[in-house]
Amino acid sequence: MSEASELLRLQEIDLELMRTKKTAEALPQRQKVAAARAAAKKVAGELTKIVGQRKDLEIELADLDDSKRFFSEKVTEIQDGTYNQDFRSAQDMEYNLATLAKKIEKCDYDTEHLLPRLETVERAEKNARALAEKLEREEAAQVASFKQAMDKITEQVKALASERERIVADLPASIVTSYEAARKRFGGGAVETLRDADAPPPPAAWHFSPAPSPTSVAAAPRSRRARTASESSSSPARRRKAHARDAR
C-alpha cells in the first residue's frame, strides 16, 4: 500500500473512531440505566419514609396495648381487693374503676383509629417494595444490554486501533507528525485526494489540507478537487490556446 493510500486509510480510521466514540456516548441504554437508577433512588427514599411511619405506628400501637394491659390489671386488683393502696370507701373504689375504664376505652379508641393507618402504610410499603424490585430488574436488564453494546464497540475500537498502529508504524515519522498536526487543527480531516478532471484517474495522490482562507468556513475539505488554479493554467490545452492567440 502506498503512503497516499495509507494516509487516507489512517484518516478513515480516525474518523471512524470519532464516530464510534459518539455512538458509545449516545447509546440509549446509558440514559435508560441512569433513569432507572434515579427512579430507584427516589423510590428508596420514599420507602425509607414509609418504613419509618410503619415502625412509629407499630410502636404506638404496642404502647397502647401495654397501657391497656396495665389498666386492666389494676382493675382486676381493685375488684379482687388486692390493690396495695388503702381505699377509705366504696365510692373511691368505684371512682378509680371508672377512671381506669375510661383509660382502657381511650386505648381501644386510639387503637381502632391507628389500625387503618397502619394498613394504609403497610400497603404503601408493599407497593414501594414491588416498584423497587421492578426498577432493580429493569436496571439490571439495561446494564446487561449496555455492556453487550459496549463490548461490541470495544471490539471495533480495538480492531481499528490495531490497524492504526500498524499504519503509523509503516509511515515516516515526519509524515505522521504533519498528519497529526493537521488532524488536530481541522478536527479530523487532514488529508484530501487530488485528481485532474481532464485526465484518467491516476494513482491516488494526497496532500495535507491547507489552512482555510479568510472567506472560507470549511475547516478541512475532504471532497475530491478537480484541479487547482495553477494546474488549470499550466495544462497542455491552455498552453495550446494561448499559443494560437499569440500567433494571430
Would you mind describing this structure in some detail?
- The protein has 248 residues and is mostly helical.
- 76% of the residues lie in helices and 2% in strands.
- It is built from 6 helices and 2 strands.
- It has helices spanning 3-25, 28-80, 90-170, 173-186, 229-233, 236-247, and strands at 191-193, 206-208.
- It has a two-stranded antiparallel sheet with strand order 1-2.
- α1 packs antiparallel against α3 and α2 packs antiparallel against α3 (90-170).
- The chain is rod-shaped and about 120 Å long.
State the main characteristics:
rod-shaped; 248 residues; 6 helices; disordered C terminus; two-stranded antiparallel ribbon; 76% helix; mainly alpha
Helices and strands, with pairings:
Elements: H1 3-25, H2 28-80, H3 90-170, H4 173-186, E1 191-193, E2 206-208, H5 229-233, H6 236-247
Antiparallel strand pairs: 1-2
Helix pairs in contact: 1-3, 2-3
